[in-house]
Design a protein that fits this description.
Strand order of the largest sheet: 16-13-15-14-18-19-17
Shape: globular
Distance between the termini: 56 Å
Structural class: alpha+beta
CATH superfamily of the largest domain: FAD-linked oxidases, C-terminal domain
Number of helices: 12
CATH topology of the largest domain: Vanillyl-alcohol Oxidase, Chain A, domain 3
Helix content: 25-40%
Number of domains: 3
Mean pLDDT: 83
Number of strands: 19
Oligomer: single chain
Length: about 425
């Protein structure tokens, strides 16, 4: 009876956001407070069960999936303290970034850097070393000052770089393996606007000026459209200019979302439509533009489609040869343009950090992400294999020797080892 208020129905099913992984845990717990979390871990200890922690399920992987106990952090989402003078906040790990933005804005504060979406929980961001972009900005885990972690034995441990540093550095990119993150003390800054300048360049022009472009703004990222060989360059800087949101309903919503999605859906039956979807998406963003808005609105991009996605981190110095090899792969092996990624490939950058399992450990890093519309591959998953081959064959050569590489990737890319 003691667990009744925090237990989901026994037939509850968990799926990640893109519905690429689904599982049916033995029990799903939704604790309302930290004491409930302690009870759940004690029950698991007595029953000999493993507990997996899940937030909103936005990971494209099956990291949270289990057939034993699952703990959802949905209700552990409170802001505990706000220190506006020191620009620090303490929040529960289950708070989503959207919720955090709203709360910080009320106090004239904002997060230092962000990724492309804000649907995830803060603890999920921290334990996976998720990142935004900016060659002088670390992964988002570097914004963490301290944490309180609930260990498997039920003990609560405060950790930071000065106190229990090993636990701290193992947890900030530990994939949940060290314990449940209850509270997070986060460094923030005063609210600010970002001015984003967008321009289109050819692939060759972008690579020829790569270092200059990467260092030309605080937050630079590229969107590469393989269908047209165009690079959309996004350069964002802090500014005191008044807000000037860009875009229009017709181009951004009707054409950029509904029409593109229709073409992607038709591509299930008429694969030439995939090419047209890529060409349309490229054309819609081909003109130079700029906007000024709240920082989190500029950091984030629309992520409306269910999708298959993969992202690889490579040393910054290997960006140019890796992208050239990827482009060569498109032109030589994926001769049919219908096989090429129809979504733009997102290219971002981050500064070195000291986090043990972080892909940016002691190195400047480039992140290359490939996204494919999920419905295109429903019932015919073999069509997704070329994207797996792209990832493994083109990136395996340039990733660090001590990086984790899946057995699938090793099997596909054995001739490149």
């Amino acid at each position: 009876m003691i667990l009744l208020p925090v237990t989901a129905p026994s037939n509850a099913v968990f799926s990640n956001w893109a519905e690429t992984f689904i599982c049916t845990p033995l029990a799903i717990f939704e604790p309302r407070n930290e004491y409930h979390c302690e009870l759940i871990l004690e029950l698991a200890r007595r029953e000999g069960k493993v507990v997996r922690v899940a937030g909103v399920g936005h990971s494209p992987s099956d990291l949270a999936c289990t057939n034993e106990f699952m703990l959802r952090t949905t209700h552990l989402n409170r802001v505990l303290t706000v220190d506006k003078q020191k620009r620090r906040v303490v929040v529960q790990g289950g708070i989503t970034l959207h919720q955090l933005h709203a709360s910080l804005a009320q106090h004239g504060l904002a997060m230092i850097n962000l990724g492309s979406i804000s649907d995830q929980t803060l603890a999920g961001i921290v334990t996976t070393a998720s990142h935004g972009t900016g060659i002088d900005y670390g992964v988002m885990s570097t914004q963490v000052i301290s944490m309180i972690v609930l260990l498997a034995d039920g003990s609560r441990v405060y950790c930071s770089r000065n106190e229990q540093p090993d636990l701290f550095l193992a947890t900030v990119c530990g994939l949940g393996s060290t314990g449940l993150i209850l509270n997070i003390e986060l460094a923030v800054e005063s609210s600010f606007h970002l001015k984003e300048v967008l321009e289109s360049r050819s692939f060759e022009d972008t690579l020829s000026n790569l270092k200059q472009l990467v260092h030309s703004s605080e937050h630079t990222r590229f969107f590469w459209f393989p269908a047209t060989d165009m690079m959309r360059v996004s350069m964002s800087n802090r500014t005191h200019e008044t807000k000037r949101p860009g875009g229009s309903w017709f181009y951004d919503s009707f054409m950029g979302y509904h029409l593109v999605q229709l073409l992607l859906f038709l591509g299930i039956f008429f694969r030439t439509c995939n090419t047209w979807a890529g060409l349309l998406a490229s054309w819609l963003v081909s003109s130079a533009s700029s906007r000024v808005d709240d920082s989190y609105r500029v950091f984030n991009v629309e992520c409306r489609y269910l999708q298959h996605t993969t992202e690889w981190a490579i040393p910054y110095e290997n960006v140019e040869p890796c992208l050239r090899r990827l482009r060569k792969y498109f032109h030589e092996i994926l001769v049919d343009p219908r096989e090429r990624p129809h979504f733009p490939i997102e290219i971002r950058f981050s500064a070195p950090d000291d986090i043990w399992l972080s892909p940016s450990y002691n190195q400047q890093t480039c992140w290359i992400g490939i996204v494919q519309y999920k419905k295109l591959f429903e019932g015919s998953f073999e069509l997704y294999i070329p994207t797996s081959k792209i990832s493994c064959k083109c990136y395996r050569k340039w990733i660090r020797r001590d990086c984790f590489v899946t057995s699938t990737c090793n099997a596909i890319s054995s001739d490149y080892l």
